[in-house]
From TrEMBL, chain B:
Signal sequence region: none
Similarity section: Belongs to the binding-protein-dependent transport system permease family. LivHM subfamily.
InterPro entries linked to this entry: ABC_transp_permease (IPR001851), BCAA_transport_permease (IPR052157)
Stated name of the protein: High-affinity branched-chain amino acid transport system permease protein LivH
Pfam families assigned: BPD_transp_2
Keyword Amino-acid biosynthesis found: no
Chief location category: membrane
GO cellular component: plasma membrane
Amino acid sequence: MIATRRATLLAAAALPLPALVRAQGTEGPIRIGFPTPLTGAFGTEAQDQVRAAEVAVAEFNESGGLGGRRAELLVRDDRLNPGEAATRTLELIERDRVDFLVGGLSAAVQLAINNVAKERKVLFNSISQSDAINEARDWGPTTFHEALNPHMTAGAVARHALPRFGKRWAFLTADYAYGHEMVRGFQRAGQPLGMETLADIRHPTGATDYSTFLPRIAGLRPDVLCLCNFGRDQQIAVKQAGDFGLKRNVKLVAPVLLYTARLAGGGPAFEGVVGGTSYYWRLEETVPSARAFNDRFRRQHGNRVPSDYGALGYGGVRTVLEAAKAAGGTDTAKVVEAMRALRYDYYKGPQYYRGCDHQSVQSVLVIEAKANTARGEADVFDIVAQEGPEERFLRSCEELGHKA
Amino acid sequence: MVDYPLDLLALQVFAGLALGAVYVLLALGLSLIFGMLGVVNFAHGALFALGAYVGVFLLGTGWNFWAALVAVPLAVGAAGLLVERFLVRPLYGRPVDDPLLLTFGLAYVVVEAIRIVFGKQPEPVETPELLAGAVFIGVGYFPLYRVFLIGVAALVVLALWLLLERTRWGLILRAGARDPTILRVLGVDVGRVWLLVFGLGTGLAGLAGWLAAPLQGAAPEMGVPVLAEAFVVTVVGGMGSLLGAVVAGLLVGVTYSMTSLLAPEMAKVSIFALMAVVLLLRPQGLFGRPGGLMA
């Protein structure tokens, strides 16, 4: 009785506005699944990814969305575990019916997400470093890679560091895909410049003590100690290498020098460490889009500035949403086409997705950490070099196994 | 096969012993509480992190490292007293997994509280100026702070040994671990003894946390790997054996160190392999006795 009356009322209410009802009934908000390791060794970076992704979603919604359709971010904790990530991704696709996936932090985890996504033909924009995701074997037509890859990052840092700091390099490498790919990137860029690898010592990820890896490195007397690890691993390794007195005659280099690790590690420990990054907030001094993004981030998140990996969360979500706008809907094939056509400058200067592998061609910054300064605790790096957005710094499509 | 110079091997053994000293500090509190009370304290790692954060807090209010070194174990120990009195005590005499589940849950509460109060980002902790930098120890350079930790570990072990073996209170403790009923009949307030033991064990966890902070900074999750390492040391040494905790701590440290030289990617696995071998050959641990009493 009541049910019938409610149905009648609803039907009556719906009558004058059939278009609106249909828009909400069959389409609803644009749902973006966002798996990322909120807990675990990269938790700090992951949380900033979420903050920045929220900025992209808020901007989109405030500007009216896609013809009134709002965007929605569905954040899931993958615990830095490929199995967990695959499960969460599957849930996002099957149960939550997401339109797109953005996220991932860790080479192995993003490949797990990508596997599930490409099988189900869902667009996935990865915001974490990986070489493998570009390769034909792992890549799929719905795979995009907004982050830098190790080949570009390590290449830029090697080309900067080798002529300046010396040819004798020792590597202390986290024993997983990210670490291995970074070492390969350094060695490949370093070979024509005369790099000599004294040792590549692989440590278990998530190690909290590096004192037992360092005596051998000290004994080798390298010019450069390259720390190919990430997150808290990097923060602790830099601190402990300094404790061993290594910084006196050895230059510490990291493929990706993390803003968050520098904050957690402190100024004295990181001073003088050189590394690469996709983004540093002081880019705003020269790049207008960086200024706009930072200001917006500051407003939304209590006046803090975005970190490097955070900014990727913004770039990853914004590109997808802009592409959906351009495509006029969320149909995967159309959005993929729109993504491929993007020539964008959303937060760090010009970027575009390369045709064969959807790798975002973009600049790589080389930065150097400095001691605490009077300009505030966010002023932690100087940008010392920059490699422009050029395809010659990427591996060729043929090498990756893509048909030209 | 690479040839390793003797200097390097010696330095590597030293690095292992220094790391072992850290492990000893980690494991003592866990071992003490299990040995005396039969409680497996799963909150040990969380209290370790709490120790680091109490120190960070004190530093922020103008204290120096040394003053915090005294205050932190007292503060975390006091928290331990409250935990024993109001949470653990009602569970004595119940199956061993009851206090285990309680402390397991408590660990989550403590870590989440740290996240709420201090935020999720790790905090940097500088090495105290007096102990910063590296010193030459005959075979190579080694961080001065780690040499200091060897000394601290030795002092703590000595103090604990004197307390347990050479004082009346220690006598009561050891008797209480063997037969609380008889002790009660003799008119000793066993409840108070257990309270103090729990406070002492948690205080040691806090001390270890603050001592570890200059090595790795403070992070809410910093106790998670520590709990696993402390358990390895306690199991290898024999649950509840003080001597066992010391010997096993050093053994685990040297095992980790030599593996990191010869097969670095195996370093983490090696200590678990060591534990498996010990358990196969001596299920009660190197110095453990059935009943898990302090040696």
